[in-house]
Specification:
The complex is a heterodimer of chains A (734) and B (66). By secondary structure, chain A is mostly helical. Chain A contains 26 helices and no strands. Chain A folds into 3 domains: 21-177 and 388-544, no CATH class; 180-235 and 243-374, Methane Monooxygenase Hydroxylase, Chain G, domain 1, CATH 1.20.58; 551-719, Methane Monooxygenase Hydroxylase, Chain G, domain 1, CATH 1.20.58. Chain A has helices spanning 5-22, 24-46, 53-62, 67-95, 99-119, 122-144, 149-173, 180-203, 208-235, 237-241, 243-272, 276-295, 307-338, 342-370, 392-416, 421-435, 441-466, 473-491, 497-511, 521-544, 551-570, 576-594, 599-632, 639-657, 661-682, 689-710. The longest helix of chain A is centred in the last third of the chain and has 34 residues, at 599-632. Chain A starts with a helix and ends in a 24-residue tail after the last helix. Chain B is of the alpha+beta class. In chain B, helix 1 (14-35) runs antiparallel to helix 2 (45-64). The N and C termini of chain B lie close together (10 Å). Classes of the chains: A mainly alpha (734), B alpha+beta (66). Chains A and B meet through helix 7 and helix 10 of A and helix 1 and helix 2 of B.
Amino acid sequence: MNTPALSLKAQLRQAATDWWRSEAPTWVYVFKMVLAGLLALGIGYGLDLESPRSALITVFIVMQPQSGMILAKSFYRVIGTLVGSMAIVVFVGLFAQTPELFLLASALWIGLCTVGSAHNRNFRSYGFVLSGYTVALIGLPAALHPAITFDSVMTRVTEIMVGIVCVGLVSALVFPQASAPGLVRIIRGRFTAFVDLISATLGGTADRKQLEATNARFVGDIIGLEAMRSAAIFEDPEVRLRSGRLTRMNSEFMALSTRMHALHQLMNRLHANPAASAQVVIDAISPYFREVQPLLTRASGEPVMSALDAADAALKLDAYKRELPRRVRATRNTLSEQCQSDNAMLDFDTASELLYRVIEELHAYTLTYASMTQRHHEREQWEHSYAPKTSMTTALIAGARAAIVMLALAAFWIASGWPSGDVAVLNAAAFCAITSAAPDPAKATRTVAIGVLFAAVAGYVYTFHILPRLDGYWMLASALMPVLMLAVYLTTKPKWAGYGLGICIFFPFLAVPDNFAHFNAAGYLNESVALVVSLLVTAVAFMVLLPPTTDWTVRVLEKQLRKQVVDACFGKLAHLALKFESGTRDLMHQITLFTGSRPLLRQKALGWMFATLEVGHAIIELRNELHGIRTEAPDLLPASAYAALNRLREAIPALFAQPSAATLASALAANDTTIAQVQAAIGPHYRERSQRHRLQRTLSYLHFIRTALLDEQSPLHTMRAGATNNTTGERHAT
Amino acid sequence: MPREISFFDAYIPTVLLLAVVAAVLALAADRVLVRFGFYELTWHPALFRVSLFICLAALLGLAVYR
């Protein structure tokens, strides 16, 4: 060994620092959760509750790294449990004499709760899961002894509350992990990504892959920020004061990124256009892009980081925004002397309009960010919330699946007289509810089933060889600790999370004694078999009964995504843009979850998202503009132009409802007629500037829709009659 | 004060109801304190909030078991 001792010491220190940085937070988390669990167990024994293990299991069900998430999850768990308990009392009161009706009612209730949970987002969805789960977990044992239903429900609710209070207190007080840094990290990352995107737009780099990656990241960011916000308001009063502004920032960011994407796409298409006039337009508009980047960077050259930097950037953006229209008009005048092509002028107008709106929205976004330094601010007034979009079809399927699994097992239980049938039924129902939110429920249930097998074996050894030798709570706690620590540690590793969760929930279920301990080996084996069987049946149901990971589900979601355009055409105009933006992204997020292992499908869906966002957003803008024209100056456009616009409003939804060569051709034709009509309405003669500008804006939206419909990389392209996928072939002029 | 209160014919310990009252009071105090930026002065805001609640609950509890 020729390594000197000093370097070995240094190496050891290096290794220790590495370990401290990467593994210490995990072990702190493991320590906290096991502490909370054992604390809940101890309090449960101390209070003479019937089965304190429920408190322990509750701790493991709500455990999350950040205390805000635990508090949010606990809050909804309390609500869900209370609602579920009331349902139990009602069901037992109504159907105590007829188990068949009781089981049917419970199955319906669990199905309904699963539908509700699939229809909601974040931890609110969890509240629905819980209210179904409670009916299964508490209701079935209670229904077997109708006389003591009320007492047993009260005991179980108390046990759950003890678990929730323990995990909430421990996570908030012992080495607390705040959510606020995560929020700040996301918001900072956005500015960096934006500066990158702007420079990419400037270069016109047509790298579709990178664009897809950036937008997929934005979608993830938006959903992530919303999830974090909804959890952090439970934990941090400072975040709660800023909650409205955080929602607002997210909405503004969605609007901004859609607009930025539109601009980016327009520039890409211009770069791809071989005509000489396109190059002239690019040369005319490019200098402006170069000026945007410095507005978003500090003097030292790094992108905007803190809210204070943002205030500075907002001032610069404001000045730039006020200057922009005058400068663009000057550029336009010189450009119109240089080239006579109508199309080139249209491209320039569209690009400059988009640029102006990007700056406007960027300004609003930075203003909101800058306002974060203050506790109170007028920008807090923001009543529009994030609108989750879930396909009712998939939600109904999930609900039906849960109800069917429960009914099938219940029928088997009643028909066969299986002694542990109740355990199997309640567990299958609970697991259908819990895993229905997972992206691949069948796989999740399979891994949990393997965890349960381990828990059953380890639990047997514990119950019949170790427990009889133990005396008192402290010995029990020290005996449980190794297994619980291993299980919690496994849940922190994504690959092993399912196994860990199985052990976490079912090891206490099998091995932790009730307050009045009884040992019954045959009963233990029966229960273990029932648990494993119920999980297997659940896994099979997820694989067989319209599994959520099939191509069919993705196609349904894709169809919903396209339907967003139809909503954009006919929905009520108030807040339509916000609803459209968040709904489209939410759908895309669901598709992303389902297509984890199938990049081709995801790419196709992303293509549809781009087409939907571009066309839908332009249509909403167009409708807003037309609404202004109709109410303020209806004679600005002739009747024939209104007729053409109405035809367009029929043709575009038809295209997105049923994409085919015929509908695409008719949409394009309708769009071309409308452009011609509006161009004729503008005319060469003199018009007041605001009127002219209005018409030009209308025209630029129409032109943008046209370029989006003609985009070579959009999935619409494959519909075009005579189109080839050969990108090296002749490019279509845009 | 009576130690148990009849609520729809179910006896509920008064302390439990008082704990709910204390939680409401603590929540209101929390809103006021954050408005003045009080939590910047505390070392462990979460600990302070929990302690505040326990103090209030204990005070109200004294009214029953004194």
